Amino acid sequence: MTVSGGAAAGTSGANDTFRILVARGLRAFGDGFVALLVPIYLLELGFSALEIGAIATSTLVGTALVTLWAGMVANRYSVRRLLLAAALLMAATGAAFAVTTAFWPLLLIAFVGTMNPTSGDASILARSACWRHRLRTSPPTGASAASGSCS
Question: How high is the mean pLDDT of the chain?
């Protein structure tokens, strides 16, 4: 009985690992795809290189601040709730980008939203596994909590 129970548990863990790896791979592909498409889309809208750079910078600064904030409050809320809020914010950011064509609203949306203009995984979702581990072991304190650091 213990062998079949252990095999079932091992299979479940392997399935979870596979799903996580597939999801991370798809997300990384999406991040890289968006990193290429956003500047092209903004060029098609007629923005200058300076305006495109300002919007990209705004996304980086906004994402960094949201990640710092999430690092400070991660121990107060469930990881599921934080990830759901982050996913909804990302979806709202994408929808707002799709319907807005003026520079200043796009700059604000880029800052408030959590769109990642780089091909790396540098957003709030990148820290989810780290937060889950840290919350199980000990709550973050000091500089590690303020920075959202996983080390």
Answer: 76
Write down the pTM of the prediction: 0.64
| Averaged pLDDT for residues 51-77 | 86
CA proximity to 117, closest of 102, 97, 100: 97
Task: Using the structure block, give the residue that is written with the tokens 């707002």.
Answer: 96
CA distances to 126, 138, 140 from 135, in Å? 16, 5, 8
Of 24-28, 72-76, 115-119, the range with the lowest mean pLDDT is: 115-119
CB-based contact 104:54 (threshold 8 Å): no
The confidence score (pLDDT) of residue 141 equals 54
Phi and psi based region of residue 77 (left: phi greater than 0; alpha: psi -120 to 50; beta: remaining) = beta
Nearest-angstrom CA–CA distance, 117 and 40: 12
Contact between residue 41 and residue 94 where contact means Cβ atoms under 8 Å apart: no
